Amino acid sequence: MNYYLTGIEGMPRLLECCEDPLEYFKRNLYPTQFQKWYQMNVPTFDAIENGYNSVIDKDQFLANMAGALVEYAKGRIDSCRRRSAKERKMMDLNMAMVTFVFPMVLEYKGNSSVPLTDKLIEAWKEAFPKSVLQAASFEEIEQGFHKKFCYITTAVCQTFGKPDDCYELTLLRNYRDTYLASREGGKEMIQEYYDVAPSVVKHIAQRENAGEIYRSIWEEYLSPCIRMIEDGQNEACRERYEEMVRTLREEYLYH
């Protein structure tokens, strides 16, 4: 069996099967769909693992695997004619990578799994410099569903000693899952949040003044958003929410 060829041909299928990730990224659908797609791709992971364990230049072997997936992603984006369509496709692919592709690779738990994930992140960043992806396992994402993926808000509330089911978190989650998700462009905004928020929290946590940063986020963005929701100013909250994501991305991911 040609492990190299089987791996190269199989890598694009990791994305082919999950290019509409938001449809299945729901607590009641995600586990079943993840396992279905994972089992579909086990032959690819078997080939990569066998090839990885047998080749001399393991680094280049995995770089080629990652390159095959990235080239497929480029082709999907290039096939979109309008700029807006390209941007939507980019968001879908970023979401698919974070919620399905990385977790599937890590779920295999082979010698090649973590190194391949690193190569995928490296190749994706080189091909799409504006994308800042962070890998998570299936177990970590499952745990995240219990927190409704409010990464930044949860981190801020923890600074104030607030529990995960506190009034503020519950209000903001309901706003996101009802009003924001139903508005034009809302799902794209939520996808962007899923993309950047874990890395933002990680970068802030590494700073000595993390507590001060979180308090600033609370005062400048979250507290005003809460007041706006309470007053029925949902669109104003949306604008402040969008400003927060954009500002934190620029401040903590690109500098």
Give an overview in words.
- The structure is a single chain.
- By secondary structure, the protein is mostly helical.
- It has two domains: 3-140; 148-253, no CATH class.
- The chain has helices at residues 3-16, 21-24, 30-54, 58-78, 83-108, 113-127, 138-146, 151-159, 167-182, 186-205, 210-230, 234-253.
- The termini are far apart.
- The mean pLDDT is 85.
Features:
255 residues; mainly alpha; 2 domains; 12 helices; 78% helix; 0% strand
Secondary-structure blueprint:
Layout lengths: L2 H14 L4 H4 L5 H25 L3 H21 L4 H26 L4 H15 L10 H9 L4 H9 L7 H16 L3 H20 L4 H21 L3 H20 L2
Helix pairs in contact: 1-3, 1-4, 3-4, 3-5, 4-5, 4-6, 5-6, 5-10, 8-11, 9-10, 10-12, 11-12
Compact summary:
It is built from twelve helices and no strands.
The total count of strands amounts to 0
Strand proportion: under 5%
Number of helices: 12
Query: Rounded to an integer, what's the Rg over CA atoms?
Result: 19 Å
First CA to last CA: what distance? Answer: 46 Å
Could you spell the SSE succession in H and E letters? HHHHHHHHHHHH
Number of domains: 2
